[in-house]
Give the backbone structure.
Amino acid sequence: MLSSQVLSATAFAAAAQAVSFSVGSTGGNATSPYQYGIMFEDINNSGDGGVYAELIQNRAFQGNDVYPSNTTAYWNPLGSAEISVQNLSAPLSAALPTSLQVTASGSGTTGFSNVGFWGFPVVAGWEYKGSFYVSGGLDGNLTVCLTSNDDVQYAEASVEVASSDEWTQYNYTFTPTVDAPNSNNTLNFTFAASDLTGSANFNLLSLFPPTYNNRDNGLRIDLMEAMGGLNPSFFRAPGGNNVEGLREPYWWNWTQTIGPLTDRPGFPGTWGYENTDGLGLVEYMNWAKDLNMDIVLGVHAGYFLDGTAVPESEIQIYVQAALDELEFLTGDASTTWGAYRESLGYGPWVVNFVEVGNEDSLGGGGPTYAAYRFPAFYNAISAKYPDITIITSYYDVDGVTPPFNASGDFHEYAIPRQMADQFTYFDNYTSAHPILIGEYAIIEYDTGNKTGPEWTPGAPRAFVPFWYGSVSEAIFLLGAERNSDKMIGAAYAPGFQNLNRWEWIPDLIEFDAYPGHTTLSTSYHVIKLLSGTRITENLPIEYDGVWGPAFFVAGRNAVTGSHIAKFAVYNATEEVPFDLSFDGVGAGATGNLTYITAPMNSTNPIGGNIVETHTSTVTAAHNGSFIFELPPYSVAILEIGAAAAGPGHNYGNPSHRRGWKGFKSWARRTATEAGVLVVTVGDCTCIMMSDERR
Ligand code: AHR
């Protein structure tokens, strides 16, 4: 294979699918400062049991009439104990009325244990921080122990509990000295049955491993690092369907997600389980801050997933909630909500984007959205916050276009052939308002009995992203980049799949309680590559070939001074040779070529990676051309750093270009019939084509 090597003139001329283009130095469209981001909602236990680092499942027995709280799910008695859930007349808090009641008989060790989110990670050297509230007749030593299912005791702490009718919080820490080989571990709370008089009630039992940036009530380090690896610029949260809510009165009411955990009642998430709301608005904002992302704040738009729209007479309730939320996030201490935020210890955040609702065109929501819901939000928010970009929750270039003078959120779940066909999709977008691609993903293979280009709702999904699907996503992303003056940016969705419990596949990152199982999918690697090198100014491409199997964009980065080209090679059967030049990049310039590739149908195994990364240096020939090959189904970046751009063709210096132009016309005149001329000057060999493009 000659990939990423300089090709001989003969090889280049003989190659059937050679792609030749040149990149100008002026006249390209501007780009969005955002481009690549993350979309997140608590789906697939990706918040609770996922990014939110809490390790105890059902820690506060939260519930409602959707997911009843009268359950001891995830808790088991030990020894002679009997456990139940109770609503005491003196609960821990109004938000957390239900607690775990423990009784025991006889003597000996007794207690209860939690199974975690399908196990607990045990990592040597991690300091775990735990706490619980207790009231009732327990007087004595309580041991908390991280124990394997075959009884290896990895770490334990002793807590002296004094009997009281008042709820009292106890804290503990422990640090294992060895790693557990898997997550088949439980957290056991034990005490002498003789220390219990009557019963004791427990609530808000919590255990955190170390968290990202060491934040209290923080986020899981490896998953945050994985997201950070995507170099994301924006963060769309908290959904997705979750921002809508299942039905009245359950909507993502931000006021119930802030403040002490004892004040957060939880929320019946839209993905089959109760959300603790430990991962609340402040945690989302800290997450955005820690990964240096701008929030795209989803607000409830008076529409529920059961198709109920709030009547016009009541919509102001939800509009006011959004205004209050913005005041909480951005207001100073002179404002009611700003003052409350300050009292919680957080400075103001910046909000540049608000998305009103989610997919409001579905289920019959479009007419009310158009008639009064969106206008009510738009008018109120833009009046008070004129600098905020307000985004409608749906957009379709070809079809359902919201009738508003605002940005739209375009969602694209597709099969590869459909996605790969959309390189030029946004070329026709002419609105003055940039589009958000708030969700996109390949969700099925092209296989099966499908003949059309569209995915089939209800057809079998891919379990995880697969390589040719991920490359087709790269084509779509490059299509967005080529139009990035019209874009806010793009985010894959959903972000995470807990391998023990999911509703939506495929997802960008798979994980479970065991850190060694965290899997960065093939699509993850595509985004990481494309997002990791940013074009801040697109440059015009002179290319008279067809799009496919090669797709590409080119531009410059104003900060680094680099020239950049990004490529996707899709439906090719052999290596695709490229020959490209940049106006402003001269002979001898060196470019770093990075391409990633994998077997076409392959997927990443749990904890593993089949995506190969190849890097090489490509040197420009005398005419400034970079000649190299990329394999079928690959995604690549060629970056020529400012210091490596070569002499004689400085960007923007027309006198240099005049010299090259003269040389080119001479070359054209004298090219061989095959269209190729090889010129050797000293030890420098140049390849020239008679083709106008060169
Ligand atoms: O990403 C999963 C779901 O897909 C989102 O919640 C919703 O917006 C879309 O339908």
Summary: The pocket of alpha-L-arabinofuranose is lined by residues 41, 43, 239-241, 358-359, 439, 493-494, 504 (CB under 6 Å).
